[in-house]
User: Fold this.
Amino acid sequence: MWYPAKVTAGPAEDPDLLAQAMQQAIVEHGEDEALLRRLIATAHEHVQKYCNARFGTQTIVVKCDAFADMQRLPVAPVQSVTSIKFLDTDGAEQTVATTVYEERFDDLEAAIVLKHGQYWPSIQLGSRIELTVEAGYEVIPPTVRQAMLMFITDSYENRKPVNVDGWTALDSLLCNHRRGA
Assistant:
């Protein structure tokens, strides 16, 4: 079982997104810059949760109960594994050697599996395994960026989302980027 992820280093600010949001929302003055920055942060968070994927490189720490959980990681896309830590049967913190496991990162499906002839170490009963990864698309896909801009513009202009028959343009743009369901 995976536990909620903790972002220890968030994505860098996208310098083009504020200018694009101002253009998209037809903002001709800088007075609403703080509002737009807040809407950008909201859009970014919403898109990540909606898609169950990360946009922008982030350092993420997540914990699980067993090494078997590594067969499907709860965050994606994963760029690299920083560490896999655990408590050994004596209660001492250990790090799994990179010679033990193999990274399998296939876009939105990420897994860590044993290399041939290797075994996962024994862990202290009741302890959790801590996985630290670098995750997220380095460049936000164009359809996701457009969905964010539409979300920002809708929020800026209407102060409420536009919904037609339970489906929005946001849903349409993001449906192909969803992970899990």
